[in-house]
Amino acid sequence: MIVIFKQLTHEDQPGHWVPNYYVNESVGIATGFLIQALHQAGYAMLTYTPAPIHFLTKLCHRPENEIAEMILVVGHARPDAPLPSLKKKTLEEIADFID
After folding, report:
1. Overall pTM surpassing 0.70 (yes/no)
2. The Cα angle at residue 80 between residues 76 and 81, in degrees rounded to 5
3. I want to staple 93 with a disulfide (CB 3.0 to 4.6 A). Which of 54, 62, 89, 97 is the partner?
């Protein structure tokens, strides 16, 4: 299990806390890269967001300025595990071109 945290603020000087910007976007992009890397390494995973999620800060001994975003449960799938049949959309289905 990998618990992914987001850091909402940071201390730039002793006792002076400032917000971190674009936290959700940054954590989402980084998590997407992690999922892709794990997939390429041959692992299967499940994303899970428990509710309430705040207990993970204390359980994982993280500081109060961090909050868990999600849990990735990672492992090897059974060889006979069914996989979904996914079809990618064509470029024409997802984009408009303006001259």
Report:
1. yes
2. 60
3. 89
For residue 3, give the DSSP letter.
Answer: E
* 56 touches 3 (CB < 8 A): yes
* Alpha-carbon span 28 to 22, nearest angstrom: 10
Q: Which two tokens stand for residue 27?
A: 């954590």
Residue 22 DSSP label: S
Which tokens sit at 56?
């993970």
Scan for tokens 């954590």, then name that residue.
27
- Going residue by residue through the chain, which has 99 residues, state the pLDDT in tens, using 9 for 90 and above: 999 999 999 988 898 999 999 999 999 999 999 999 999 998 999 999 888 888 999 999 999 999 999 999 999 988 898 877 888 999 999 999 998
Which is it for strands 16-19 and 66-75: parallel, antiparallel or unpaired? unpaired
